[in-house]
Design goal:
By secondary structure, the chain is mainly α. It has one domain (about 30-55, about 75-210, about 220-395). The chain has 13 helices and 4 strands. The chain has helices spanning about 35-40, 65-70, 80-85, 100-110, 115-135, 145-170, 175-195, 195-210, 235-245, 270-295, 300-330, 340-355, 365-385; strands at about 220, 225, 390, 395. The strands form 2 sheets. A two-stranded antiparallel sheet has the order 1-2. A two-stranded antiparallel ribbon has the order 3-4. This is Zn(2)-C6 fungal-type domain-containing protein.
């Protein structure tokens, strides 16, 4: 006599789980799934809410008042302009100056009426404060207090993503503006968290939104066309400023006697490469920001052609810069892996190339070019993420 096997119970398949365990029923807790946390694995997180956009922008709907309405009982922004300018990048821990006061003021003003931006700012404030409070023998916080502060930052991060995804479900002029401003803060949050892969996703998809919705005038076969959605935040300029600032990451572990907030020691190879190569790339970055400003104000086809020529010169300059970098590396570091600082220079190079390629021109093969450059940028962000897994943002890489 044969016995029938008990019917297997169906299990709901999860298609939206985290990248680590979505195939084995992710519980989808955010920002990190509980399954990964409980099993001691590193949760690779979720795809950016700045999802890819098709070549044809979605119709702009009416602003959702409930999505942008905010309780004004808070009374003021979560941060001052000076603090946010400093919190935008972890580079400022090592006394690197940023020039993002204008961007900070835009974000803070918008946070008074937009929940996603306010939650993102609260997350950044908590996570950055938690990072800076961990000074050896100088903190009055207990380990439990620091844990609560960190968890609060993650909770606010999750709320920001949820609110932002809701806004982007039905794009409107207001939701596009808030999405780009929120993207600035989320890029900074991912830096504090050390999740450079997610940072790369936010950068790529934020730039896609800016380009697909034609925030600046552009050229077609019919000539110069006006911006479709003028007045959107200049996310590209913000990102360029962020990465053009000096990078003091190091792969040399500091002496144990150093303070936890002591800037990392520069390696010999960093000193050989960084000064000249960074100076040249910074010149291109400055010129790119200038071109973007003039494209915004463009009035005639003649001006457009002049700027198109200048754009071409900058793209040629980027190609020459990359060739010079690789030649110099072959001469000074044959067979050695590229330094973290040079990884970040390459990220800036790719950002500049993506921004310039998407400015003014609408060539038939443009989407393919941008897709390839974006893939290289994401691959490089993933590489940095892997290399800096054990990096203590306050000290340098901790060698296991």
């Amino acid at each position: 006599m044969t016995t029938s096997k008990p019917a297997s119970r169906g299990r709901t398949k999860v298609k939206t789980g985290c990248a680590t365990c979505r195939k084995i029923k992710c519980d989808e807790a955010k920002p990190f799934c509980e399954k990964c946390v409980k099993t001691g694995r590193k949760c690779d997180g979720y795809e950016s809410v700045f999802r890819p956009f098709s070549s044809t922008p979605q119709p702009i709907g009416k602003p959702d008042a409930s999505a942008s309405r905010h309780d004004h009982a808070e009374g003021k922004p979560p941060l001052s302009t000076g603090d946010l300018n400093r919190y935008f990048s972890t580079k400022t821990i090592f006394d690197v100056e940023l020039s993002c006061n204008e961007e900070a003021e835009q974000v803070l003003q918008a946070s008074l009426t937009n929940d996603s931006i306010r939650h993102a700012l609260l997350s950044l404030r908590a996570l950055r404060g938690n990072l800076e409070s961990k000074k050896e023998r100088e903190t009055s916080e207990t380990g439990e207090q620091q844990r609560l502060s960190y968890n609060y930052g993650l909770q606010q991060y999750s709320k920001a993503l949820t609110s932002l995804a809701s806004n982007l479900a039905y794009p409107s002029p207001d939701s596009l503006k808030s999405a780009l401003l929120c993207c600035q803060v989320l890029i900074s949050v991912e830096q504090v968290r050390g999740n450079f892969s997610a940072m790369g996703l936010h950068i790529i998809r934020g730039l896609n939104i800016l380009r697909e919705y034609r925030a600046r005038p552009y050229l077609t076969t019919d000539g110069l066309m006006s911006a479709r959605h003028s007045g959107l935040p200049s996310l590209d300029v913000f990102i360029i400023k962020l990465f053009a600032a000096p990078c003091k990451f190091t792969e040399q572990q500091p002496s144990e006697s150093l303070s936890i907030m002591t800037p990392p020691i520069e390696t010999r190879s960093d000193r050989k490469l960084a000064p000249n190569m960074r100076a040249e790339l910074t010149k291109v970055a400055t010129s790119t920001i200038s071109v973007l400003a003039r494209v915004t104000e463009i009035q005639s086809d003649e001006q457009a052609q002049s700027l198109l020529s200048e754009r071409g010169d900058l793209l040629d300059g980027l190609d020459s810069w990359l060739g010079a970098l690789e030649s110099l590396q072959q001469e000074t570091q044959p067979g050695e892996p590229e330094s973290i600082s040079d990884n970040f220079l390459r990220i800036l190079y790719l950002i500049l190339k993506i921004v310039l390629l998407g400015t003014l021109e609408t060539a038939p093969d443009l989407d393919a070019k941008l897709m390839e450059e974006s893939k290289q940028l994401q691959d490089l962000a993933n590489l940095v993420n892997e290399r800096l897994k054990c990096y203590d943002m306050r000290r340098g890489i901790v060698v296991a």
